[in-house]
Specification:
Blueprint: E1 10-14, H1 19-30, E2 34-39, H2 42-52, E3 58-62, H3 68-82, E4 87-90, H4 105-133, E5 136-141, H5 154-175, E6 179-186, H6 192-197, H7 200-209, H8 218-229, E7 240-243, H9 247-250, H10 255-258
Parallel strand pairs: 1-2, 1-4, 2-3, 4-5, 5-6, 6-7
The structure holds nicotinamide-adenine-dinucleotide.
Nicotinamide-adenine-dinucleotide is lined by residues 14-15, 17-21, 38-41, 44, 63-66, 91-95, 114, 118, 141, 143, 186, 188-189, 191-194.
């Protein structure tokens, strides 16, 4: 039995300067955690930390998660500041959507570097701190693109599928030390990333294909992540949770049947 600390819990969120990562940061702050936000975009990160206006509870760390020495330095900075880590959310991600035969090796490496290497490195660095204390939770942010293949996602989808497996690998080993590791697979969420890669036509296809008929919100992603980090999820380990309005359950479905047999107008 590990002695429970009375000091506030500490959460580390990568890619926390904006979007889903920032919403996750808000969730942790609202639930009493101190929060370290790691991001490669120092300008946006500084602005975000200033906007949060809780300097005693929020630490911004300029860090490229695909760079092992920067990740090690970030872990050191978090420990120096807050003394412990209770939750890690590997949220930092990049998307390049290009045909499989056209995407360059550099683009492939860049996507894998952040989306997969970043989670590997951060889980090593911050996971060690949690294992030492015999408790903690890691949540990775994958994507529905990691659950099923689709066009233009050879790098992005492969990185997210690998991240889902990485989750299970870490869940098996860190679980032995009392640290749970899970992954969510978001459907489309209205963020800067989505604005970049979702055209009007793609949006309309998503609306048609998602049973709930809309994009998810960043808060809905944060609620799922927060739950998986919380004591309420104390026996959940190595699981992938699709937070996608039913997209994964429905797959492509049969659009004509969904329209009650009527042809598309
Ligand atoms: P976003 O682009 O708005 O935010 C991503 C953040 O990660 C940015 O602040 C960026 O600077 C940071 N980042 C990128 N590379 C980094 C690196 N190497 N090191 C540190 N920080 C880095 O994106 P978002 O939509 O909020 O996406 C967050 C996560 O959710 C990503 O992993 C993404 O793949 C995943 N996701 C998003 C959607 C969606 O529709 N928006 C759907 C499924 C999954």
């Amino acid at each position: 039995m590990t002695e429970l600390s009375t000091s506030p819990r500490v959460a580390v969120v990568t890619g926390g300067a904006r979007g889903i990562g920032l919403a996750i940061g808000h969730w942790f702050l609202a639930h009493g955690y101190n929060v370290a936000l790691l991001d490669i975009d120092g300008v946006t990160l500084d602005q975000t930390v200033a906007d949060l206006a809780q300097p005693e509870r929020v630490l911004g760390v300029h860090c490229d998660v695909s760079n092992s020495s920067q990740v090690d330095a970030a872990a050191k900075a978090v420990v120096e500041r807050f003394g412990q880590v209770d939750a890690l959310v590997n949220n930092a991600g990049v998307a390049v959507f290009k045909p499989a035969l056209d995407i360059s090796f550099e683009e492939w490496r860049a996507v894998l570097g952040t989306n997969l290497d970043g989670a590997f490195l951060c889980t090593q660095a911050f996971g060690k701190l949690m294992v030492e204390r015999g408790r903690g939770a890691v949540v990775n942010i994958a994507s529905i693109s990691g659950l099923r293949a689709s066009t233009l996602r050879v790098a992005y989808g492969t990185s997210k599928a690998a991240l889902i497996h990485l989750t299970k690998q870490y869940a098996v080993e860190l679980g032995n030390a009392g640290v749970r590791v899970n992954v969510i697979a978001p459907g489309p969420v209205e963020t800067e990333m989505a604005k970049l890669v979702h055209s009007t036509a793609i949006r309309s296809d998503y609306y048609d294909t998602i049973p709930l008929g809309r994009y998810g919100t960043t808060e809905e992603m944060a609620n799922a992540v927060g739950f998986l980090c919380s004591d309420e999820a104390s026996f959940i380990n190595g699981q992938v949770l699709a937070v996608d309005g039913g997209f994964d359950a429905a797959g492509v479905g049969l659009p004509t049947l969904r329209r009650g047999g009527k042809p598309a107008s």
